[in-house]
Amino acid sequence: MPNQLSLPSKKTYVLPIRDAVDRHIRNKHPETHPDAFRADVDRWEALRAAAVESRVHVDTASAIVQYHAQLVFALTKLPANLGLDVVYESAFAARPNPISLPNLHYERCATLYNLAARYSQLAMAEDRSKPEGVKQANGYYQHAAGVLSFLVRDALPKLQTTITADDLPADLSESFLKALEWLMLAQAQECVWQRAVLDSMSNGVIARLAAQVSAYYGLSLNTLSEASSDIRHELPSGWLSHLETKQLHFDAASQYRQSITDLERNNYGSEVARLTAARVSAKKGYDVARRAGSGLAQAVFEDIKSLLDIVEKNLKRAERDNDLIYHEDVPPASALANIPPTSMVRFTVPTGLEDPKAALGKQQGLFAELLSWGARVAIELYEDRRATFIKDDVAGAAQSLDDAQNRVLRDLNLPSAVDALDAHIGLPPSLLRKAEEVRVDQGPERIEQAFDDVQMLAGRAQRILDDAMDILDAEASEDEKVRLEHPERPPSHEANEELTRKAERYRAILQQAAESDAVVRERWDEWQDSIERLAWDEDKLEASVPATTGPSAAGPAQAHARGVRALLEDLDDLSRSRQQLVGRARRRAEVDDIQPRIVKEAAGIEQWMEVQPSMFEDTIEEELVKYEKFRADIVEGGKKQDEILEQLRGRMKAFLASRSHEPAVKEREAALQELDLAYHKYQDITRHLDEGHQFYNDLSAILLRFQQTCKEWTASRRDELRGITQGMRNMSVNAQAASQPAAAVSPATPSRAPRRVPKTPAPPRVTPDTPAPSSAVPDSPAPAEIASPTFPTAPTAAPQTPKKKFALNLPPPDSDAWTTMDIPAPPPSANAKGKGKKREFA
């Protein structure tokens, strides 16, 4: 049995890559047909299938490196939130625990983790009883540590910035990965120590190497100890005991080897002190290993026990010799010189990770012909800014000037005041045009229908939100019943907190919208009669306006009226000019296409660089400059309007002072003003109703997506519950099976039956007294028997996963399967060799 640890791979499932890519291309690249990239999707699926192959061989590690390189390139073309639900199980989960994140950075991080796991599995597959096997294992462990370091440094930050902290899987947290980094370095350094023992190097060198092994195991243990309980609980129960036992083992081994050096230098008191320190550490390590029980590999327990026996035997001899012969003072442990640790290992990052271009060689990257995601976002950003600019700075500014003009005219009672003076009977042409517009539009009927439509859309939006909350309420009711059996499961009100917050926000938005609708309805109720009058026939409308019978005002009043009307015409000209500017800006935007320029600039960016929208900021600003002239013309028109309005106030003051004061003129003026104001209210009401119509349509689309999210969340909670229930059921079945003789185990559950281990001789383990190393597995060019994650074809249901097995399909240390399996016996030569070495150290 091996005395080192390998990392289990993260199990995954077939992903609907083609569907996600097709949706993305149709939505974001409408000029391109998804079939144009069918070959790229096929390559992606084939590369991923090769990367998750279960065979533990150096070729599969190369396949993972290739797949990672293609992922890096694909992320320069596709957004991380492609809409592809990436599913992986926790690497150390005792039962199926799939975690789904719609994020390609999650796929990249999981791929890198699996690469590190594969290197550790390759190291475990080496025969460390031979120098070449020790050398290969050392290299693989350094590669595993390098991959984990690269994952934390390069890939993990991008995942962390695109998801919430709560969504980050525990086995991809920084502290967890750093602990595994130190573990891989510790095992690599242990291989160096093992080679030094095999090569019979000096005891001082071996002591320094062992001190560094202990330090690395200590760093791994401390990193995990300082992490949150959720992260610590990711590991199997025996791993923490393994780390602590190993740390104490090599601390004792370091002191033991240094004691031999002291003996050779005739430092008999220091020898006794170091052996005493070695015994303290070895005894602590032995106690930790004994308490761990079946959770700790038997090889680790035997190693620490053998070391403790050797140290105690040598301590008795050293104390006897010093008491009877040398009579040297024994210094306290604190007075002993520190053993300087010597590290001979480092984080070795595979070249293909640091330089993915080199990993692909002459291969073409995935979606090489597709416009990069950053460039596409830059185009959308430009189009959005352009639309916002035209809406706010051109059309919005023009509308604001029109509204300001209309407010002044209403305050001055224009044009009704001059219309009433110019004509005794009939209606002014401007009013006739406005009435005709309302009549042709069937204004009152249009408004009533618009109110009905808005009310219907508001009710639809409310029902969608209510249905979404009903889904959450139904899940909460189910959860109350389930929690009686599974109280450890997070309650619904905590698990769906984010969804309920969104729902409350949407409900508040609907309430505000309803209040706005009520204001518009009140305005309609107030002006309904006047607006309906505008829709009357011309004759009927004219008859409703009082006429005057006397002569129109004399000379001064007429002169002032002509001046007022001229200024009104100037205002009309400015208003028409503004509308023309708005129309020209919108027509310019319809034919404006920034894509050729963005594509050209994106092509000039280094191919493997991740294109960010910010890279095109200067280009976007340059292209928007051509719309500045429209805003400048609007602003200039606003200045002219202010001057005309100021002149108009002066003219109206003189006009009012000189006009006739007949009551009939006043009455006619008031009637014309009311109709003119009704027209403006009509425009205001219809504009608000159109906006309300668009608002509820947009909100309904958002609420439908929210409702779908609630459905998916509820489905995931039910899947999680089924996984928990199935796991409990399987544990119960396994417990029953373990309590029966092996022959009584039902053949209907082959996935739970341990596979037999070939009866091959086990090489001897290495302890400080025996230089022969503990073997991981017999050397094999393709150790396919080593357990590794499978690749099921049904992503919708996570199949029950057997507990992770170690090298040669050995079950976990805490498994009951040990009672029914054949364990290979150690070769007699190994035992003899070990005993011989013990006599030598003695």
Description:
By secondary structure, the protein is mainly alpha-helical. It has 4 domains: 8-202 and 346-370, Serine Threonine Protein Phosphatase 5, Tetratricopeptide repeat; 236-339, Methane Monooxygenase Hydroxylase, Chain G, domain 1 (Up-down Bundle); 373-725, Butyryl-CoA Dehydrogenase, subunit A, domain 3; 749-780 and 816-842, no CATH class. The chain is 67% helix and 1% strand. Strand 1 and strand 2 (98-101) form a beta hairpin. It is elongated. Mean pLDDT is 82; it is low at 741-842.
Summarize this entry quickly.
The protein is 67% helix and 1% strand.
List its salient traits.
Methane Monooxygenase Hydroxylase, Chain G, domain 1, 26 helices, Serine Threonine Protein Phosphatase 5, Tetratricopeptide repeat, 4 domains, 2 strands, mainly alpha, 67% helix, two-stranded antiparallel sheet, Butyryl-CoA Dehydrogenase, subunit A, domain 3, elongated, 842 residues
- Give the tally of β-strands: 2
Indicate the proportion of strand residues.
Answer: under 5%
Strand arrangement, largest sheet? 1-2
Q: What do the pLDDT scores average to?
A: 82
Shape: elongated
Structural class: mainly alpha
Could you give the distance between the termini? 27 Å
Q: Low-confidence segments, ≥5 residues, pLDDT <50? A: 741-842
CATH level 4 superfamily of the largest domain: alix/aip1 like domains
Radius of gyration equals: 41 Å
Q: Which percent range fits the helix content?
A: 55-70%
Tally of structural domains: 4
CATH architecture of the largest domain: Up-down Bundle
Written as H for each helix and E for each strand, in order along the chain, the element string is HHHEEHHHHHHHHHHHHHHHHHHHHHHH
> Which CATH first-tier class of the largest domain would you pick?
Mainly Alpha
